[in-house]
Specification:
The complex is a heterodimer of chains A (365) and B (76). Chain A is α/β, with parallel strands linked by helices. Chain A contains 9 helices and 17 strands. In chain A, 28% of the residues lie in helices and 25% in strands. Chain B has 76 residues and is mainly α. Chain B has a single domain (2-74), classed as ACP-like (Non-ribosomal Peptide Synthetase Peptidyl Carrier Protein, Chain A). Chain B is 57% helix and 0% strand. Chain B has helices at 2-11, 31-45, 56-59, 62-75. The longest helix of chain B has 15 residues, at 31-45. Classes of the chains: A alpha/beta (365), B mainly alpha (76). Chain A binds chain B through residues 39-40, 43, 160, 194, 219-220, 232-234, 236-238, 240-241, 272, 276, 279, and chain B through 27, 31-32, 34-36, 38-39, 42-43, 48-51, 53-54.
């Protein structure tokens, strides 16, 4: 079992940025028909989302979120000694997007910088990776950034996925402390048998000549090999069985109960999934912040987007948070931590785009 | 059988579940319907339908769904 416990690491800040562009679910009625869109909204709870513009990337959103975090916390960027970016929407095949963020933030060359290729579980995995590095090094200040731009690889006529997608990025500031603080704990799991459940088949090195021809898939939706594909029923079925099991195991290992947590920050997959898990674990819905209706499924950032939406303007108090992530890989996990609400910042909008990063011709290299 | 029939009819009142035998392969049930049915069956019978159970033949007819439920109950 991959269970982790980190003492003397504290989450001191969470900042979130969303794109300015609003996508209203009702707007898909012309494309998919009223009945189907109404059914989708009832099932998922999603009425609108945010998408980036064509050239705005996940690293742009992440940079804006990290810049906001640095400003809010009054940090000197040179003090940050680790920057980890969890994304499956990198700017390039190489280098990792974290380096592009590092440049824009002005972090020192003494900083450890890399990407983690994960989607909807990147918050729980990312927290474990950064905390692990910190406890085994002299790194005392680190930033984890998470973000995806899934709309860019999803076919506009893919009725199984396109209306689900929202885009956002979060930045989390972790600090080593000598104070006695509640430990960060994580339980992580994965199952490569499900590598095809959520996949973009082209763009890697397996099929260098992947066709851009659109075809109708088995589920009746048109896609190219460069588009996202989701086996929705498999993902749903895995989620409502394996995720609650991991949560129950986590409660048993940590000798805690549902009552010990103030908030359950779920990956915002869809309303039916969250309600199913809540029912199985007997979690009161009022302990689950939901941002699906207004931001959609914002991938790995989503549990923290919800914290920023609901606690970004609240009076100072301590929150015991259980965070649950699950998705591409397939991978899933549970993390718990304590945070002061004054360290959770309100969501900001940004259309920031790193223009220098766009390379449109080899003559620009 | 009646309990399952009620669950199915609540999800899709427009389908005659007692006579249809190609619910999935005939395109009568979409993925939203399947996940709703799985949720309801899991709750009603306290079973755990898993990814490897997601074969069309397990959801093509009322009798196939009943057989799946009985199998899951026997695995408990």
């Amino acid at each position: 079992m991959a269970y982790f416990k980190f003492d003397h690491i504290k989450i001191r800040g969470i900042s979130c940025v969303i794109p300015k562009n609003i996508i209203r679910t009702e707007g898909f009625k012309d494309r998919f028909g009223s009945e189907e869109v109404d059914k989708f909204m009832e099932m998922t709870g999603i009425t609108q989302t945010r998408w980036t513009s064509e050239k705005q990337t996940a690293s742009d959103l992440a940079t804006a979120a990290a810049q906001n975090l640095i400003k809010q916390k009054g940090l000197d960027p040179k003090e940050i000694k680790a920057l980890v970016f969890g994304t499956h929407s990198p700017d390039y095949r190489r280098p990792a997007s974290a380096f592009v963020i590092q440049k824009q933030l002005g972090l020192s060359t003494e900083t450890v910088v890399f990407d983690i290729s994960l989607g909807c579980s990147s918050a729980v995995y990312g927290m474990q990776v950064v905390a692990s590095m910190m406890v085994n090094s002299d790194i005392d200040k680190a930033i984890l950034v998470l973000g995806d731009t899934t709309s860019k690889t999803t076919n506009l006529n893919d009725r199984a996925s396109i209306m689900l997608i929202g885009e956002a990025a979060v930045a989390v500031y972790l600090e080593k402390t000598s104070e006695k603080v509640s430990p960060i704990r994580s339980l992580l799991r994965s199952d490569g048998e499900g590598y095809r459940y959520l996949i973009v088949p082209a763009g890697g090195y397996r099929n260098l000549n992947a066709s851009v021809q659109e075809e109708v898939c088995q589920d009746g939706n048109p896609r190219t090999l460069h588009n996202s594909f989701m086996q929705g029923t498999s993902v749903f079925t895995f989620t409502i069985s394996d995720v609650p099991k991991a949560m129950k195991d986590y409660l048993a290992i940590t000798e805690t109960t549902i009552d010990n947590y103030d908030v359950f920050a779920f990956h915002q997959a869809n309303l039916l999934i969250i309600k199913q898990i809540a029912k199985k674990l007997k979690i009161p819905m009022e302990k689950i912040p939901l941002t699906l209706p207004i931001y959609g499924n914002t991938s790995g950032a989503s549990p923290l987007v919800s914290l920023c939406e609901f606690y970004g303007n609240q009076e100072a108090k301590k929150l015991k948070v259980m965070m649950i992530g699950f998705g591409v890989g397939i991978s899933w996990g549970v993390t718990s931590f304590e945070i002061d609400t004054e360290d959770i910042f309100p969501i900001e909008e940004s259309d920031y785009c790193f223009a220098e990063g766009f390379i449109g011709s080899v003559s620009e290299l | 059988m009646e309990k399952i029939l009620k669950i199915l009819s609540d999800v899709r009142p427009d389908i005659d579940f007692e006579s249809e035998t190609l619910l999935v392969e005939g395109g009568l049930l979409d993925s939203f319907d399947i996940v709703s049915i799985i949720s309801e069956l899991n709750d009603a019978y306290e079973i755990n339908i898993r990814v490897h159970d997601l074969k069309p033949e397990n959801f093509n007819s009322l009798s196939a769904i009943q057989a799946l439920v009985e199998r899951k109950l026997s695995e408990k």
